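Ticket #4471: structure output looks truncated?

Reporter: J.K.
Steps to reproduce: submitted the chain below (127 residues) through the standard prediction queue, then opened the result file.
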Amino acid sequence: MKTNLFCLALFVLLFILNNSSYKLSIWGILIPILAIGFLYGAFKASDYSWLEIVGKNSLEIYILHIFFVMPFKEVGDYILGQNDFPVSLTLQICYSLVISVISIKLSVKIADFLKQNKCLSKLLFGI
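Returned output as attached by the reporter:
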């Protein structure tokens, strides 16, 4: 947990400093590595890991996720408008993570609701 918090704090600090007037090339390498380290620690620390949720409900997520993933043109333009590749990459990873988590959670919740109806459950999921 301490390592995870350290990665998150250092990630935020370096991300802010990288967008300031002080430019060091090593920060562009460290920022995505720290983000990946934080995400790995966050997924591993949970009691019921995200990989188990995705694996158990992969069919439901596959069928329903498209209804919850909305591209926002303004966000894409902002990310592409960044002149710094590591910042663009980090913003894309964070944006994709948020949209993916929302999509997975909503897909699983809606699938649980739809499974209560026997006809819809048979039609959509083959149960």
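Triage note (M.O.): checked the attachment and the full token line is present. The mean pLDDT is 76.
Status: closed, working as intended.
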